[in-house]
Each structure stands twice: as C-alpha cells, then as structure tokens.
Amino acid sequence: MSLRYLSWLAVGLGWVWLGLGANAQDAPRGAERGRSLEDYRRFALSQQADAERGRLLFADEGRLGCAKCHTVDGSGGKAGPDLFAIGDKFARPDLIEAVLLPSSNIAVGYGTTVVETRGGEEVSGILKRLSEEGVELMGADGKAVVIPRAEIKERRNSSVSLMPDALQAGLTMREFNDLIEYLVQLREPARAQADDRRTPGTIPALARMVALRPVYAEPLKAPKIDGVESGLTGYWPIPGEQGAALVTHQTGIIWFMEQPRRGDAPPKLWLDLTAETYSKTGPNGMLGLAFHPKFRSNRKYYLKYHVFEGKTITTAIVERRMRADFRQDSGEPPRRVISVPSPGGDHGGGCVEFGPDGYLYFGPGDSGPHRDPQGNAQNMGLLLGKICRIDVDRRDPGMEYGIPADNPFVGRPGVRPEIWASGFRNPWRFCFDPADGTLWATDVGQDRMEEVMKVRKGENHGWNVYEAFERFSDAFRKSGETYVAPLMAYRRRYGNSITGGYVYRGRSAPAFDGVYVFGDFNTKMIFGLQESGGEPRVVRHLATCPERLVSFGVDGEGELYAVGFEGTIYRMDFSGCSLPTQ
Prior knowledge:
This protein is of the alpha+beta class and 582 residues long. It has nine helices and 31 strands. It has a five-stranded antiparallel β-sheet, with no helix packed on it. A four-stranded antiparallel β-sheet has the order 6-31-30-29, with no helix packed on it.
C-alpha cells in the first residue's frame, strides 16, 4: 500500500463523493453516459475550470453533500478528513486520480473498519476511538456508534471504500473539472505563511540544485500482495563493504546490491519475509534496519517490521546475523528482541538506529487513530508515541534485552523504563550526527505542520497537546509538564508527510558539512537545514526527487542517498552547489 499519505488522499477525497452515492444509482442529473475514466481525466487535465462553481457544488447538500463529511478550515471533527490546504499538498493529477479511483489506496485511519458483533451484525465506519471499553466508529452520516468490547466478535480493516464505484458518472465532465479546480485552490492562507525562522513561509531553492543520480540501472520492484501498492523503504550500505548495500521493500523482501565499476549487478534476493511481514493496510511492513556497532566482528543486524499476531498489528524488532563473507544472511534462527502491539494499526514509526552509546533506539508512533484520541503519546505506561532505548547485548530477567541504567525513567512507578523521550505522533526516521552524537528526528504532523527536532534525554515533545508550535488539545495536558517545541516546522505548502534524513558529514561537499538533510514524501522536495545556537540559520530547497521520497541512506564516507518509493535509489551529487550563509 502507498506508504503514508497518498493513501490518505485517496480515501479523503473519496469521502467527498459519499453524498453522491445514493443518487448514482438513479441517473443523477448532469450525468454523461458512456464517458470513461480516461475521458474525465483528460478533460480535467486540459480544460479550464471555475473554482467558484466547484465550491458551490461542494457545498450543495442536495447533490454531493461534501460538506456533510468534510471541513476545509482545519477544524476537523467530521467523518471524513479535513481538506485544509489540500491544494498545497497534492498536484492536480494526484487529486484527479484520488477522486476517480478512491478505493485504490485506503490507509488505516480513514479506511473502513468493520466490526462484527457476537449477535451477528456488522457495523462499518471510520475508526475514531479504541479503548478498553470498546470501539467507536463514525459512519458516512457523521453519527458515532460505540460497540462495547464484550459485544465484539471481530474487528477488521476492509479493502473496500465506503463510497460506491463510478461516482464521477454523476457529474458532467465540466462539473467534475470545476470540483477538482476548487480542491486545487484550497491553499493555506498567506497570513499563515508569514516568514519566521522556525516556520518559514518561503523556503528558497539553491541557485544550483543538488543532482540526483540513479545508483542502479533499473528500479527495484516486488510483486503486489492482494493487489495493494507497496514500495521501497530503505537503502542500507553495509559497513566495511565498499559499494554493497541492503535494500528493503515494504512487503518484507530484502535485496543485496553492489555497485561495480562497470555495469550493474542484478539484484540478489537476500531475504524474503513476506510470509511473516504485515503490509496489507496502512503504513505497515518492513520499515527499518540497523547494523550493530560491532557488526564487523559479530555480524549482527536488526530489522524493524510489522507482524499480525493475536488479531493485532505488532511492531517487531528482530536480530539476525550475516555469513562471514558479508554476502548472505547466515540462515541462523532470528531472535525477537522486542514486540510493541499497535492496536490502532497506524503511525508505526519507521526507524531503528544505534546511538553512539552502543544502545538501540527505536520509535513507535502513537498507533492512531488520527488525533491520538487515547493519548498514547502522553501515556508513559505505553511505548507508543515514544523514542525508546534498549541494550541488545544484555538480557534482563524475563526479557530479550536490557534496560540501560541511565535511561531517564528507570525506577519511576507506572512508567516504562525503555522510554528515552515522549510526545511523538509518527517519528518517520531519526539519526545521530556522527560529529557530536545529537539525535535528530522528524515527526509527521496531523493537520498543519511537519516537524524537525533535536531530541534529548527525558524530553516531552508535546503531541497531542501540541502540534509543532500550536496548541492542539488539552485532553491529556499534564500540570507542570514541560513541552519541548521543534527546531523548525514547515506548513502544508511544502508537504504533509515529512521524511527524516541525515546530517551531512561527507567529504565531497564541505560547504554542506553539518547540514541536516530531510524531505517530504508527497511533494518529493528535499531540504537542507543549518542551525546555530539552537536556531535554524538557513533552510533551503536542495532538490526534488522524481519519485515519492520514502527514506534516505548514508554510506561509510558520509555521502547521502535518496530512496524513491517507486523503486529507484539516487545518489545526491552536491557538485557545484553552495549554501548561503543566511
């Protein structure tokens, strides 16, 4: 499945059409019989449109009823997702595809959840709350239904959208185009884009952009599972093996790749873990990999992926070993280091890294649903919504790992001792600066902003009390608690699904030494941030990835790579580029 927010888009815009579904069976007015999807697509890409007519159509409860399910001002709270600034988040072709093919990519959080009761009934809707008491779903009519836990026989995610198919048939092509134009024009107001170093309204591009050069001749692809979209998740150069790397795919496939001086070696299958990797719904699957600090002697490496156990999606961190030639997995039985159940099945985080202290850090997200209604990120009795720190070289009683003695909450009643920092929604990649050991992280936002932060021992980074610098909810606010703001955040003009990267410490581009490189999955933009004294000093648009930007990689020389979800690995070439001083 599309890893993060393209799926949100398809489902979100699918909700626009729910009001039309009832009429689509009855030759809705304005319908153009015999028109194909391609006819609508071509028309909306080539003809002028009227956003005001589209707005009236959006608001017409007698036709589409879009406003019944959606807000467009950031307030949220209805059955469908808020469409605030959706025109900043997605290009016109993406908006067209999402409306024409709403069931093609359905993410957990806005997809359909089906609850079967012990009495034989089935209740469908959007998952809004999951607790010990039961499950709360919201239907297309905006009404909430609570099913007590004692009455639930089974809860599952459906691959079918609540909206019926062929809904564009209820509109003329001109009306369809007008509606798309209205969505395109839903952009963040200029007043919200006022320039500020921490929330820049404008991120200028370099005078000469960083070049992205494909590492391999052909993209890496894996077969679809149950027909859902999936893609690459990471590029992991093997320490001490020049030009050799592992490439992870969301479905659980791992390839061994080399960069010979002439030509390209064909991809070699390293592991196929598709049978145990859960990647069918949401941003789940094979997401992270880390090499042990003593990898050259013990040959250990660690995978972070999702499994489905006991009817629950669970994050698993697993230890494996390579053969002595570093060209193949050893085939030895793996060791499950830790498991973190994710009841909401969303926001699983995407990173596992060893720190300079030799301990393993990993970051489960809040698990969803959207807005974290259970307050998981602020619940210190859970690992969800945290960055955690464990010792994989020692095993405490009853566990497959040890708790470092200097973890900030060791011995605190009711607090999980694995926690290093709290208050995260979905920390999609973090890294340690090899120069000073600073932990850099990014957190995918809810409605307004994407966050870049430096994370220190014991800090609370605020979600869901804050989203970046803005108050979000007081439901789980704690008296006397200190909430740490991010170093910087960008608004929807530049994307809605941040992808963390690395601090550049390579030798080929000394002008970029110390620059934190990150990007956005959906806009595909790559940014560089230079900070001084805890303040952003320079932020620039470095490049635009040809594919959706799912991850970055770094080799033994400190050089950086961009990972395209659609299958291409790009080497970042800084030749001829310079970074302004301010």
